[in-house]
Write a structure and sequence with these properties.
Aldehyde Dehydrogenase, Chain A, domain 2; 4-stranded antiparallel sheet; 10 helices; alpha/beta
Amino acid sequence: MFPKVDTMHRTPTVSSLAKSIRVLANMEDPIGRILKKTRLADGLILEKTSSPLGVLLIVFESRPDALVQIASLAIRSGNGLLLKGGKEAKRSNAVLHKVITEAIPDTVGGKVIGLVTSRDEIPDLLKLDDVIDLVIPRGSNKLVSQIKSSTKIPVLGHADGICHVFVDKSANMDMAKRIVLDAKIDYPAACNAMETLLVHKDLMQNGTLNELIVDLRMQGVNLYGGPRASAFLNIPQAHSFHHEYNSMECTVEIVDDVAAAIDHIHQHGSAHTDCIITEDMETAEIFLRQVDSAAVFHNASTRFCDGARFGLGAEVGISTSRIHARGPVGVEGLLTTRWILKGSGQVVDGDKGVIYTHKDIPV
């Protein structure tokens, strides 16, 4: 799922959208780039080149700014695009689609971007695995689950954004308070907002845990606890650790150490974005190496996991898939590769006359 994908602004203005498009427009052309060049044998040169994926189907809910971001990424990466937006923004989507397609040069053709206006068309489109190469859903967990169960086409995205912040015993507490508050309240509906706060058990004794709880409550955050935190803090017990609030609510739990925090994240997380706050570099490195999420941070808010903040210009969303793109998906995530072999009459013939050198050549 790509719910309410964040950009550098919560409510993008026309000027901020234009700025992100200019970032993409000013990029070096990503299509047909030679990524690697190898001399296989005398007179036989192999090139690994970048290539568009093909035709993308993006199903997104509400926000019409998503249409602008997605369309600009598709054009920059050379992909065909079918867009289906939420009914709430039907008129805005139609106007934005018209503006974008009219701006596309005749040599490319406006039909490279299509707009699907009826929800009834989606089931039929999801059957076109011989035409559509990738589906990217941006919306609710229900939407993503429905699409995944209804198509043979590869689906890129994530179903949940259950992000953790682990406050270690050696954390700088002023820093920890800033990061925890930002991760939760900067934009609670974003998929990169903190949903679970993990706290080292030693912080129960020195009052630090209580300070974090007071700060969150003062900002209007409703708290739920795991078995240990609910008993210690006298807060309601969370019905599940695997829960995405998308609101001013979060789960708190107490863990014994970094190993327990990592185990908790792997058992209950969604492999989206997870953070450790610590001044102990050895502990930080253990966390960064062992947490198998798309984005793993040390002493920085989970809210930084965003295509614009990562310098990608824009994003079609954040992927937790381990195949193909992972994390914020920008232009590179919408490309694949092709192999171009240039010879001078060579044949294999059982490899009898070929001497392979496999020597890398500067690109």
